[in-house]
Amino acid sequence: MTDCLFCKIVAKEVRAEVVLETERALAFRDINPQAPTHVLVIPKAHHADAAALAEADDGLADDVLKAAHAVAVQEGVAEGGYRIVFNTGPAAGQTVFHVHAHVLGGRDLTWPPG
Ligand code: 5GP
Ligand code: ZN
Fold first, then answer.
1. DSSP structure class, residue 65
2. How many A from CA of 68 to the centre of ligand 2?
3. In the chain, at which residue ranges do the beta strands (DSSP E only) sit?
4. 84: which of 12, 26, 43, 101 is 20 to 30 A away, CA to CA?
């Protein structure tokens, strides 16, 4: 997708602070962090949202989830607890339509979310 911000990060046309890269996933720090650890984990292939990722049916969702957990371990938040969030669709606040898992940790996270 030529006009997708996160595809441009995958293509290295837009800079990002990458913290983990696997064959099919990329993790980079959110530009506007909401917690001490706030990393976005994406499939390198373009899928608009979690529904499209789930339908990819080739283990890609599994790769993204495993990468999200690996980021949590690497960031030192896995033991204390962390949150993985897929905002899916406008009502959930999704603003970038290349699916991404937010990995949030490093502080106590309240529930329910806003
Ligand atoms: P959403 O609202 O779609 O769930 O999350 C999009 C996230 O992307 C937001 O948390 C926002 O701060 C982040 N973001 C938007 N533009 C950029 C960018 O250019 N670089 C990085 N690293 N994060 C971005
Ligand atoms: Zn994209």
1. H
2. 18
3. 18-21, 25-29, 37-43, 82-85, 101-105
4. 12
* Assigned token pair, 62: 């599994």
- Picking from 36, 40, 32, the residue whose alpha carbon sits closest to that of residue 87 is 40
Ligand 2: centre distance to CA 12 (Å) = 12
Distance 32 CA to ligand 1 centre (A): 7
Q: Whose CA is nearest to atom 16 of ligand 1?
A: 31
Atom of ligand 1 nearest to the CA of 14: 19
Q: Probe ligand 1: pick from 31, 39, 47, max atoms within 8 Å of CB?
A: 31
pLDDT (mean) for 9-28: 98
d(CA 94, CA 96): 6
Q: How confident is the model at residue 93 (pLDDT cuts 50, 70, 90)?
A: very high
Tell which residue, 51, 6, 52, has the closest CA to residue 31: 6
